[in-house]
Amino acid sequence: MLFMDRVNKILESYQKVNRDSLIPILQDVQDELGYLTDESLEIIGDHLKLPASKIYGLATFYNQFTFKSRGKYHMRVCDGSACHLAHSASILKQIHKQLNIRDGETTRDGMFSLEVVACIGACGQSPVIAVNDDFYPGIKSSDVKGIIEEIRIKHQ
Ligand code: FES
């Protein structure tokens, strides 16, 4: 399906569209495309009769939205205080090694992207990483390879 059609399909799924629908629409579009693009904001703006610049301003205000391409599996490595003390740096180093990407990058095959984040709310189980909506509490750097392999196998 074409990019535009995918965004329009989401807009059609909203029975009554008004300005309160903006955040849920942006979430749905990001879930569908993996990230927000200028073009998607134009389409949403036309639909809601809002300037795309306003939507952009709002989307950048919330850090749940991203304008960078993400991989199918987005890895978030927590480097908040508790995780940092529990050696999150060694986990991050292992991910760099296994995927050959740095923070903010996506693998060439589009499978994985990496982001270092502050506390993700599971300090009691630090160190923690998340892959999309799945959390991996109390992991060790030696677990990283297996987690990545498991995802790759699942994806085949
Ligand atoms: S510091 Fe990592 S989950 Fe809170």
Strand order of the largest sheet: 2-1-3-4
| Poorly predicted regions | none
Helix content: 40-55%
What letter string, H or E per element, gives the SSE order? HHHHEHHEEEH
Q: Indicate the overall shape.
A: elongated
Walk me through the structure:
With 156 residues, the protein is an alpha+beta fold. Helix content is 46%, strand content 12%. It has helices at residues 3-12, 22-33, 38-48, 52-61, 81-85, 88-99, 144-155; strands spanning 73-78, 112-117, 129-131, 134-136. It has a 4-stranded mixed sheet, covered by helices on one side. A hairpin with a 2-residue loop joins β3 and β4. α1 (3-12) runs parallel beside α3, α2 (22-33) packs antiparallel against α3 and α3 crosses α4. 22% of the residues are buried. FE2/S2 (inorganic) cluster is lined by residues 78, 80-83, 119-123, 126, 128.
Question: What distinguishing features does this structure have?
Answer:
46% helix; 7 helices; single chain; 156 residues; alpha+beta; elongated; binds FE2/S2 (inorganic) cluster
